[in-house]
Amino acid sequence: MYEAFAQGLIDVQDEVRAAFGWTLVPDRESAEQMVDLVNAHGERTSLWAPNGREESLRVLSRRLSEGDEIVILGAAVTAAEVLNLPKTPHLIIAADGAVGALDEHARLACVVSDFDGGVHLDAAAQMGALIVAHAHADNFEQWSTSLEHWAGHPSPPALILSHQTPDALDGAYNFGGFTDGDRAVCFALAMGVEKEKIRLVGFSLGEVGRWSGSTIPDQKLRKLAWMDTILGSIGMNGAVKK
Predict the structure, then answer these.
(1) pLDDT for residue 1
(2) Is 188 left (phi over 0), alpha (psi -120 to 50) or beta?
(3) Which of 60, 73, 85, 233 has the most CB atoms around it within 10 Å of its CB?
(4) What is the distance between the alpha carbons of residues 21 and 13, in angstroms, rounded to a whole number?
(5) DSSP helix/strand/coil, 30
(6) Mean pLDDT, the chain, integer
(7) Residue 212: pLDDT band by 50, 70, 90 thresholds?
(8) φ/ψ of residue 33, rounded to 5
(9) SS3 for 48?
(10) Spatial distance between the Cα atoms of 33 and 165, rounded to a whole number of angstroms
(11) How confident is the model at residue 6 (pLDDT cuts 50, 70, 90)?
(12) Distance between CA atoms of 98 and 173, rounded to whole angstroms?
């Protein structure tokens, strides 16, 4: 259940690691440690316990699959684009810091994040947004700091954990993809959302979006090129600004 929409969306992660000179082991170790940390806090925070996370995933999957339209906000989303979101009933998945573009969270289904979203991600967590929390090799400090902080909230946010290794990992899923934006699309597809119901807003190749966290611009643009490749492989890069 909840496997990637297509095996290629997982296989491409090996291609990305090779392109950047990264290795698999640190990705796996980061994910395993995130699961261990969340499980430990789950002893007193039921939403973070394995059963609580599975229930959050089931509820979100049902909500998304039954939605009329799923709008996925990328890091380059503008205020005008948010104002012009469809008037018909829709749900929103925000890619990490893009959640900061929203004035209210009534239609926010979840935030897909590898913890680059800074104050915007923290604010969403404080308001109770469900976080699809992603671990990879070089975000250990970010996820550990954020999760320890959120665990101290009176009402910690619901979590779903994700990773980017080809191996099964108890307590976390590989939904496919690489960047927060294309991983959000992969997540929606894995939840059973029909491709035709997904609308991409604020996805761009030529700029580091204002809602991106701290990043190395040249490397970020290379990552965005991989995002375009991944979305293109499923026929969904038509809405990406070139």
Answers:
(1) 60
(2) alpha
(3) 73
(4) 12
(5) helix
(6) 93
(7) low
(8) -70, -35
(9) helix
(10) 14
(11) confident
(12) 22
